[in-house]
Structures are given as C-alpha cells and as structure tokens.
Amino acid sequence: MLTFDNVSYCYQPKASGLKDISFSIEKGEFVFITASSSQYKTTFLNLIYGIILPQQGSIKVMDIRLPEDRKKIPMLRRKVGYIFSNPVFFENLTVEQNLKIALIVKQNSYDPDYTKERINRCLSFFPELKADSEVYKLSATAKEKLNILRGIISAPHLILADEPFKNFSQEETIRTIDILSEENNRGVTIIIATSNRYLPTQFNKKSIEIKGGKILSES
Amino acid sequence: MSLKASKEVFNLVFKNRFAHRLMNVIFLSFVFFFFFNIATIFFNLNRFFEKTAQEVVFYAFVDKSVNDVALKKLSKTMSLWHETKLVNIISEEEGLKLLKKSLGKDAEILKSLEKNPLPVTLEITLNPNFVDPISISSFKNKLSKYREISWYDSTEKYIGPILQMKDLFRKIFAGSLLFLLALIFISFRFSFKTLFLRFSGELKLLKLLGAGEYFIMLPLIIEGFLETLIASLIASAGNISIYNMLKTNLHIFGIQVEPLQFSYYALISLIFSIFSSLGVLSIRKIREI
C-alpha cells in the first residue's frame, strides 16, 4: 500500500527535516505516526499526499510512485482521504455542500442519489453537525468533525489524519477512533499522525515514532 | 472526467458568478457590435469598389459630319461587339460636358467656339468580363479604326486608384480583425486570470481535494465559449436591424447598403467564441495554484 524508500525532505538546504526514511505499511493496517510537535509529522503526510515531493528517494503509494509520477498526483489525491491539521473549507457554503464538493471531486463523477445517501451516512457519525449550517459559523470542534467527515466521505483506499483530535474531548476522540476503525474494518488503510504517544497503546494499534527526522522505533 | 461532476462543483463554488458573466456579455456585445459595424462598412465599401472597378464606360465623341442614319448604324454595330454591354446615345449638352471634363484644362479651347462642335456622344458600357488591360487596349484599337469617331475617353483611368483603395481598405479591415481578435484573447485571459486570482483559495482547495486542471477549467471554457457566442449573436442581431433600417432609408437617396451575409456572422461569431476559449486555455496560472 505504502512504501518509503530512503526518503529525505528538508525545507531548506542543510536544515533539519526527514532524513533517509524507509518503511512500508500494508493494505488494511491502522498505524499511528507519533512525534512531538515540529517533528515533521505533517511533512510526512504531505509527502504521501503529494503536496510536497521527496528530494531524495521515492515513495510508492498504491501504484503511484513519487516523484516520478507527479502528473498522477490528482488521481492519487482522489484515492486518499486527508484529514488536515489546519483544514480549509469553502467557508460561505454549508456543511452539506462542502461534503458534496469533496465527494464529487474525489469520485470524479456525480450521482445525486449516491451523493445524498453518502452525505447522510457521514452526518450520522456526528449528529450534532447540521447539514445546512454555514461553515464560517461553526466552532473549531465542529470544523474538526467536518474535516474528519470530508476525509472519509469518498470511502478512500487510504486515510491520512493529521492531529485529528486536537480540539476533541476524550469521548469525541474515542468516537473518532471508532469511526476510523469502522473504515479500517472495511479494508481501508489508516495513518494517524499525533503528538499523543499513548494513543497507540490505548487503542492497541501499530505505531511509528519519529524523532529528529528519523524513525526512532516501530511497534 | 465527468462534465456533469465538474459543472456541479463549479455551480457550488462559483455560485455568485452570474452578475460577472452578465457584465461580460454586455461589454462583449458592445465590442462585437462595434466590430460588426466596421465590418459592414468595409463590406459595403468593398462591394462599391468592386462594382465600380468592373464598370468601364467609353465615351465616343462622334464627328459632326456623321448623319443620324450612320450614327444609328454605328451604335448598332457597337452594341453587337462581344465586349459591349450597353450602348447609349447621349445628348449634345451632356456630351459637351463630358468632353470638357475629358479635356480638362484644354477645355478652354471650347469657349472660343460659338456653338457645340459635337453632334452626339456614344456612351459604351463594357461587359465586366472585358475590363482587363488587354481587352481595353483591343477595344481602343477597334474604336480608333472608325473615322466617324473623332475622340474617345473612358473611365478606365479611375480603375487603378479604385483598386488601390480597395486593397488599402482590405488591409485596414484585416488589421482591425486581427487587432480585435487579439483584444478578445487578451481580455478573456485577463478576465479569467482575475477570476482565478479572486478565487485562488477555492481553486487551491479543489486541487488539494484532487481536482485536475481540466476538471476546473472545462466549465470555464464552455461558459467562456457560450458567453462570447451569446454576445456575438446579440451584436449580430443589432447590426442586421440597423443595416436593414439604413438599407430602406438610404435607398431613397440611391445609396445601396447591405448587412453582412448570415454565413459571415456565423463564422465571425464562431471564431470569436473559439478565441475566447483559447484565452482561458492559455492561462498557466491554474497550474501554479
């Protein structure tokens, strides 16, 4: 599903960054990437999603190899759901419209019945999120929930989540893990980047710990 | 890629674009109306020049000694020539005017004469197929063989300048057309570039979600095409109405004007629409977002 082969990425020459990273994640795995803040968790996920390209080495995501297949990045993004750390939305549109856009773009097709059904299903995960609420009126927590729903709406092959619980209570965190676990049970590969190093143990999941731009441990 | 999907997203993200579109249609209608008017003026001028250049008239001033019977016989002979379209016998007074015009400064000599030295003048209009220099030269030879004709003149000398003017106007029109096409191309490019910059946040997000370049650009290309087509149809309708009105009003004064042919309007509208689409396609800004 995902292979990092001697991947390096630095924001400035000779600056610190991800260095010579190699590992692989199999299809259907649920993995936590743990690191303290400013330890390149977002860089790691951005490399997988093709927002940035490796300066050395290569990444294979499903059947797409980066940086070689850079023209296939839109296709890669349609197969991957990304729960961003600092999400951006169409602020003047409603929750439903934001989910609809994400689904149509990811599916690259539009079926009104399926779209409606899928949006209703996703909204049932967070009933407190109203379909007709305009995004700019939502609280940070509500936006976080919308961010999660947008990441899973298209039933992707791989879900990347960057600090998805930062504004959540313990109960909301557990609910989110349950939602992602449900997706994982359907065969979706889940990668969550978090600074909470206790979560993998708490939920009994695989973890990769990054420190100083290198993999410190895998368990 | 599904156009339906792209259009659905486009309608959600750019839902407030119709006022902008309407303004564009109004602006383009004015630009195209201006262009069609210029095109119609050039078209009518061209038609006038062509018609004039094909109409060579010879004025044969007949000797005073020629009697009526001989004159009629001469006129009939000339009308049978294959180069001749029409032969008219014109009055002495009119013939004198033409002779004065033909002699130019030398016409002063006519003042010393007590009366009109000419009996009649033959006005010979040539067939448009025989207005080339060789045919005219051969026609002149034919005329000079008749002792009854003391002098002749023709409108042939005006053809050169007329053809030059026609050529000049054609070049001006071609230049105007190229200029306008460039203007349309640039204005569309600018208009869409502004649109892209205004909505750069939304476009970035669409790309981040996985939208490809053509997913974003296809509705813009189609709308740009339709926008230009609608504007050029409005301009065409306005131009046709005005020229039909002018046709009726100017006809009274003997001036003939015509609107362009429908196929020209269709072709020009299509070219404008394609150029506007190309204007969208040429924007590389979308790749940088």
Model description:
The complex is a heterodimer of chains A (219) and B (289). Chain A has 219 residues and is of the alpha/beta class. Chain A is built from 7 helices and 10 strands. Chain A has helices at residues 41-49, 73-79, 95-107, 112-123, 140-152, 170-185, 199-202, and strands at residues 2-10, 17-25, 30-34, 56-61, 64-66, 80-83, 158-162, 189-194, 206-211, 214-218. Chain A has a 6-stranded mixed β-sheet, sandwiched between helices. A 4-stranded antiparallel β-sheet of chain A has the order 2-1-4-5, with helices on one face. In chain A, helix 3 (95-107) runs parallel beside helix 5. The radius of gyration of chain A is 17 Å and the shape is globular. The two termini of chain A are 18 Å apart. Chain B has 289 residues and is α+β, with helices and mostly antiparallel strands. Helix content of chain B is 69%, strand content 9%. Chain B is built from 10 helices and 4 strands, in the order H-H-E-H-E-H-E-H-E-H-H-H-H-H. Chain B has helices spanning 3-13, 18-53, 68-79, 92-103, 133-144, 156-198, 200-209, 213-251, 262-281, 285-288, and strands at residues 57-62, 84-90, 121-126, 149-154. In chain B, helix 1 (3-13) packs across helix 8. Chain B is rod-shaped, with a radius of gyration of 31 Å. Chain B starts with a helix and ends with a helix. The A-B interface holds A 51, 74-78, 82, 88-90, 93, 97, 100-102, 104-110 and B 1-2, 4-5, 8-9, 12-13, 201-202, 204-213, 215.
